[in-house]
Amino acid sequence: MDLGPSALVTRKAVQARPVFPFDAIVGQDEMKLALLIAAVDPSVGGVLVFGDRGTGKSTAVRALAALLPPMQAVAGCRFSCDPARPADLCESCQLAAELAVATVPVPVVDLPLGATEDRVAGALDIERALAHGQKAFEPGLLARAHRGFLYIDEVNLLEDHLVDLLLDVAASGENVVEREGISIRHPARFVLVGSGNPEEGELRPQLLDRFGLSVDVRTPTDLATRVEVIRRRDAFERDSAAFLADWAEAADATRARILAARALLPAVAVPDATLENAARLCMALGTDGLRGELTLIRTARALAALEGEEVVGVPHLRRIAAPALRHRLRRNPLDEAVATTRVDRAVAELFGP
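Above: the chain's sequence. Below: its structure in C-alpha cell form.
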C-alpha cells in the first residue's frame, strides 16, 4: 500500500520516538513475564492487563514492541505474509510467480477506542475509486497487526460492534470483508493485548475468555520501589539517549532470551503427569470448558522454554496458574475471596505450600 510522503514522514517520526526500555520497568514482574510468554508463543491467546492508572501498563506494551526481534515477510505484501507458511498466504501472494523475502519489524498496532469498523476491518479505497474508477481494498488495522500484536488501551470501553468483530477474527484467524461490492478475506492472526482500569467498567465475558493470560497490576506500596520508578523515569525523560544506552545490554540479553525460547519451544515436553495436574487444578477451580487447561499447558511450556528447561513440571504450573486461570473462574456467592486468592489456595491444596 502506498502511504504517500506525508504518511511516511509521520511513520518515521513515530518510529524515531524513544521508548522506555522493557528491562528498566520497575517491579510488575507478572505483567512483564506474561508479555514475554506471549512473545515466545502467540498461541497462548494474548494478555489482559487490568489495574490502577499510571502503573506502566501502556509503557510495558510499547517497550515490548521495541524489544521484539524482526521477522521474515513477503516483500511488498500488505498483510506481511509468512513465506515459510504457504497455506497461510493471502490471495495475492498465492498467485505470485515468485516471492521475495524481506526482514521487517514485528507490527504492534494500536486500536483506538473511537476507531470505525471500516478503519479496523478495512474498506473500499475511496481515492483509487474516485481517481481511477477501480474497486480496491484498503487494509485496516487487523491487516496491519497480522503476525504481530494488536494493542487496545481501555479495552473494557471498546464498543460492542468492534468487540464482535474481534471475537470473529480471533476465532477464525481470518478477516472477511464484504461490503461496497468488495469481497475479500485475508489472514489476521495476532496477539491481542488489552489494558484498562476495572473501575471504569467490566469486560464482556466473551472477550475476556479470549485472553490467554490476565494480569493484575497495582500501585507499589513500598517507598523504595516508588522512588526507583521516579528516578528511572526522570532519567529517561531528561536524557533518553543516555538512558537507552545504559539499558542496551539488558535489552540485547532479553531479545536473545526470546529467540532462544522460541527455538527451544518445539522440543519442550509435557509429561502426562503434568497434564493430569493441570486438569486437576482446573477441576478444583470449576473453570468452564477446556480452554483453561489448554492455556495453562501452553503458558507453562513457554515459561519452561524461557527458563531454558525442556520438561514442564509442577513449578511451572504453580508460577503461571494465577494469570492463566484467574479470569476463568465462576463467581461463587459462598466464597467472596478474590480470584487470585482462590487460585493460590487451590494450587497450595493440590501441589503443597
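Residues 261 and 307 are 8 Å apart (CA to CA).
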